[in-house]
Amino acid sequence: MNELINFPESADIEAKLEIRELTLKHGLSYPSEAELIMLILGSGTKDTPIRELSKQVLGIVMSSNNENLLENLMTIKGMGKSKALMIAAALEFGKRCNRNPQVALRTPAEIVPYIQNYAMQRQEHFLCISLNGAREIISIRVVCTGSGNMAVISPAEVFSEAIKEHASAIVISHNHPSENPAPSKEDVHTTIRLFQAAEILGISLLDHIIITKTRYFSFLEHDYMDEEKLFDLL
Q1: Are 170 and 204 in contact (CB under 8 A)?
Q2: CA angle at residue 25 from 20 to 29, to 5 degrees?
Q3: Which of 12, 142, 160, 171 is the most buried (most CB within 10 A)?
Q4: 65 and 96 Cβ atoms separated by less than 8 Å
Q5: Are the C-beta atoms of residues 87 and 64 closer than 8 Å to each other?
Q6: pLDDT tens series, the chain, 234 aa
Q7: What one-character-per-residue DSSP string does 7-42 give?
């Protein structure tokens, strides 16, 4: 009896061809982030189909910063140096092509597009955006991930890299997977602690932006970037 066996390699090829053809038809804005990674990787590993591997890679990318990205990628079973470098190089190339040092950010709405991709994540990601004196972005860093971590974020975690980068100001942000951008009491407490630390360190805390897939909440736009007004929210 001849029975067609769908080996993992065959499934990988079918998945890759499907997303490749759909991308060619609809353009590069069509694939999800995980599907873009599929196009870069080309194939999965012996034990992990390409769709699953791409999801694992995406999780690592979204929770890593430049200095630990390669190391974290290589913790994925079967990933290896070559695939890890391929992903890291593609990300760095994209950053360089989209970097515009002459764009000065003046409003929260102008910052949101640079961090909107984190709104798609199922876990909370807490970010620190470092800015220079001209209000140009120096870096966007993931400080921590995971619901419940917001309450235990220390000022040292947030400001250590900003100090090394000689940032004159920062904006903090995190996503709400619940799709409700309204700040919680934990969010307010965190903002107060960081606001107080910023005054001591001489680095301005300009805003705390909470993002969802379709909306955002800016403490600055609601006139809450003042210690007394922040306490009024509690």
Answers
A1: yes
A2: 80
A3: 171
A4: no
A5: no
A6: 443 334 455 666 666 678 888 888 888 888 888 888 988 888 888 788 888 999 999 989 988 888 889 999 999 988 889 889 999 998 888 877 766 555 788 899 999 999 998 998 888 999 999 999 999 999 899 998 886 666 578 899 999 999 999 999 999 999 999 889 999 999 999 999 999 999 999 999 999 999 999 999 999 999 998 877 777 777
A7: -HHHHHHHHHHHHHHHHHHH-TTSS-HHHHHHHHH-
Distance (Å, rounded) from C-alpha 183 to C-alpha 150?
A: 11
CA distances from 104 to 128, 132, 142, 169 (A): 17, 9, 22, 13
110 in Cβ contact with 131 (< 8 Å): no
Record the tokens describing residue 225, joined without a space. 């970037």
Q: Residue 156 is encoded by which pair of tokens?
A: 């040292």
Cα gap 122→74, rounded to integer Å:
23
10 Å CB burial of residue 123 (0-12, 13-18, 19+) is middle
β-pairing, 137-145 vs 216-218, is: unpaired
Q: Which amino acid is at 35?
A: E
